[in-house]
Amino acid sequence: MSATETLRPDSPAQILRVTGLQKHFPVRGGILGRQKARVQAVDGVSFAVEEGETLGIVGESGCGKSTTARLLVGLIDRDRGDVRFDGRTLGKDLTLRDLRRGMQMVFQDSYASLNPRLTIEESIAFGARIQGLSDPVGRARDLMDRVGLDPARFAQRYPHEVSGGQRQRINIARALAMSPKIVVLDEAVSALDKSVEAQVLNLLADLRAEFGLTYIFISHDLNVVRYISDRILVMYLGEVVELAPVDLIWSRQAHPYTRSLFSAMPSMDPDNRTEEPPLTGDPPNPINPPSGCRFHTRCKFAEAVCARDVPVMRDISGGQGHLAACHLHDTASGHSRAGEEGLT
Length: 344
Hints:
The chain is an alpha/beta fold. Helices cover 29% and strands 22% of the residues.
């Protein structure tokens, strides 16, 4: 069993509660296509999101961020774990149809996620029409105007006739057409120019305040995550290794992997040069991940206990909500060196 977050007690403020989420993909081969192994894409992820907040998810490519997002909205089936949305559990008293109305997703590839045969107006109205919501066309035109697209100019255009930034605005409007409570944004601004990215981020902030939205924001850009998020969740090789309010994690990174991510951020100071890479080596094979702490094969602080025991997610901030899964912060492991390594 992998390390999971010590979840906050369930409360009315929590709109989403994920417990022990797991997804392993089979690897098949040979003439008969028999299963040879399993890729452990997501392995025991747990977290809770309160209504109105933005949770940023960061980590290297292949750590399981996008798979987690797809599991949340039901695009792929989970192997284990519970997804509890707005007080109801998916697969028990919550249907996938109801989940889709309450939770929508904006994808990284703005062009591939739109049907090239539908006009912009039809694309935005499609989901609302399928769900039986009233006046889907009027809803689509109102949302186009809200995201900065003049309906008179853009309603009858097709996706190939607009820019990348405009297509992403279309995808945002399409998600909002369902009147969701949660919007999952998977690298939604990573393909945009910086000026357009700033416009879309400001738009997302305005929409969050206007519609009372909750965001789950996935990105590689830590500065973008800092700008838009209330808390940051760090994933490594399918597991959660750290979770904290953005100000706390920005001032001190408790996990060596998190510190490596922050150290890799480019600096605006020309005198602040990186003398050595903050992190070396490739992530281990997710088909056969390391025992104990999955990061120990790349961690310069690793000791025998790291390879032997799975670290438990624990609060290291005295109740301020800063959690980390690292033996450096566990006095019982015999490897409590967080202070001397500057990780406190």
